[in-house]
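Order emerges. For instance:

***
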Amino acid sequence: MHSILSHFNKVRATSKSGSYNCLCPAHDDSSASLSIKICEDGRVLIHCFAGCDIQNILGAVGLSLDDIVPQRIDLLKPIGKAYNPFAILKNMKDEALFVYMCATHIEQGEKLETSDKEKLLDTITKLKEAYEYASR
């Protein structure tokens, strides 16, 4: 039996796995109107059919929400990408604009100055790195 259940009176298992009914400590209960479900992931779901609120129920037996919610260390781990590709592109907008301006000059037959050629190569490298990062 789960340790949370020991805080409640007249606990009896239901036909559903991990589900129990008991007396609600937050009101004068005589018909086992409190339902407790112990989930596989450690969560404890509590519902009073008479309408008592969860804080009153837990407080009546000396518990708090922290006692029925499992600690989720995995929530601290990043899931997926740190940035979405659109955020990366937004951050790279100046570089993309520079490439566009260079392409416009080249299309019009103008030669780029050496400093602009060097900056263009550097910018292309940055854009490539951003694309590779976003593709992970």
In short: Residues 114-135 form the longest helix (22 residues). Residues 3-71 form one domain. The beta strands are 12-13, 19-22, 34-38, 44-48.
